[in-house]
User: Which sequence fits this backbone?
């Protein structure tokens, strides 16, 4: 097992959590070797013709981590720091996430190393279509299904679906998180944030607290952060700090989320709606609940000790490094881990995929009700496991997930 360091790469960190749990549940070495590594990884070249006629050579990745429980599933991110290692880590997290919330998928992730804020809509479309064409040999409605992630959205999925359909015929189930007009699911856009708040509500109730008495800081105001803010405010939580890539803002009286969203729509950022705050400062806010909903690795050895929140809800993937995780555990901070807290997105992706296969649209109420069943059941299982085995919630979540994937791998005869 790798030694614990704060500069571990994302995949080293996720693998570290895996081995910690594999030790705890006594997983045999052969199964461990299968589950600790990825099934398939591809890197594709994406020559992108810019609007000015020049060609920029970009690189994209798709990593399929484990398919024992069903087709590979996971989003695609466009980010300057997206690389093979990060995509690997995120693919592994998808394997554990889908197992934990009991949706019949494996884990995968994709990414293109690019800063999409520098691209026009036409350039984004060309890049997206080229990426889908390059990876189309390894994806499929029953093979590998993509979805939005950081800096990708319903429009990105529409282009991907169209590009795949040109080759293989109309296949709405090839991507999830599509526009509703193209076979997307009602409730998918809000699903990750809704799942975050559902899990948080359960944890708050278990702690004997009430949302009205709790303050919250949210790092990131993209799809996940903004829906979390909106739905948490509806439940009564007081959102006192939020941030996006431009910076953060603080308002001790609590933000009006609709106003924040309107300001963001008009100016492109939340900055200017309250007292200015740095993104690092936001993490150290004096609040009850901290919701990292942006990048990975933001809570590290260097700042973990300064975190004041008593509860961290990991709306982002891998926002806490393993060393920071230990520091926070010693401080008695409760962490609702990523594979539980942000699993609402892939859960409704599963509902979208089933609707596509059945060619039948569910009402939004049904989507949200079914989402609630999966999220609350997963939360209950994780809490009970943690209590029964005296572990933290992350170890409990990983233990349940690893056990399920190992069982499927054994039944298939992988090991
Ligand atoms: N990108 C999201 C995640 O990290 C959603 C994946 C999906 O819906 O397949 O969970």
Assistant:
């Amino acid at each position: 097992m790798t030694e614990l360091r704060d500069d571990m790469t994302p995949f080293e960190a996720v693998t570290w959590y895996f081995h910690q749990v594999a030790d705890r549940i006594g997983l045999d070495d052969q199964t461990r070797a299968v589950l600790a590594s990825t099934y398939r990884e591809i890197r594709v070249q994406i020559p992108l013709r810019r609007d000015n006629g020049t060609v920029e050579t970009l690189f994209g990745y798709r990593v399929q981590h484990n398919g024992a429980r069903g087709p590979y599933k996971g989003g695609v991110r466009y980010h300057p720091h997206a690389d093979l290692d990060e995509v690997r880590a995120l693919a592994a997290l998808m394997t554990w996430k889908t197992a934990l919330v009991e949706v019949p998928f494996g884990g995968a992730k994709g990414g293109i190393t690019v800063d999409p804020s520098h691209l026009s809509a036409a350039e984004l479309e060309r890049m997206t279509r080229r990426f889908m064409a390059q990876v189309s040999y390894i994806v499929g409605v029953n093979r590998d299904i993509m979805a939005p992630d950081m800096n990708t959205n319903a429009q990105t999925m529409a282009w991907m679906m169209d590009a795949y359909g040109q080759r293989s015929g109309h296949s709405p189930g090839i991507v999830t998180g599509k526009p509703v007009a193209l076979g997307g699911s009602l409730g998918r856009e809000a699903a990750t944030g809704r799942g975050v708040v559902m899990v948080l509500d359960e944890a708050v109730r278990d702690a004997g607290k009430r949302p009205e008495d709790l303050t919250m800081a949210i790092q990131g105001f993209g799809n996940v952060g903004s829906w979390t803010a909106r739905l948490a405010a509806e439940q009564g939580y007081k959102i006192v700090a939020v941030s996006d890539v431009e910076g953060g803002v603080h308002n001790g009286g609590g933000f009006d989320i609709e106003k924040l969203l309107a300001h963001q729509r008009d100016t492109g950022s939340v900055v200017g709606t309250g007292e200015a705050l740095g993104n690092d400062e936001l993490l150290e806010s004096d609040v009850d609940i901290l919701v990292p909903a942006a990048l990975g690795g933001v809570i590290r050895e260097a700042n973990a000790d300064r975190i004041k929140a008593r509860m961290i809800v990991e709306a982002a993937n891998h926002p806490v490094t393993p060393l920071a995780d230990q520091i926070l555990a010693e401080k008695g901070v409760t962490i609702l881990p990523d594979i539980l807290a942000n699993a609402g997105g892939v859960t409704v992706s599963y509902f979208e995929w089933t609707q596509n296969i059945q060619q039948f649209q569910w009402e939004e109420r049904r989507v949200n009700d079914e989402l609630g069943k999966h999220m609350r059941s997963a939360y209950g299982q994780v809490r009970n496991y943690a209590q029964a085995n005296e572990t933290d919630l992350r170890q409990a979540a990983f233990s349940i997930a690893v056990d399920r994937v190992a069982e499927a791998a054994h039944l298939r005869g992988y090991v």
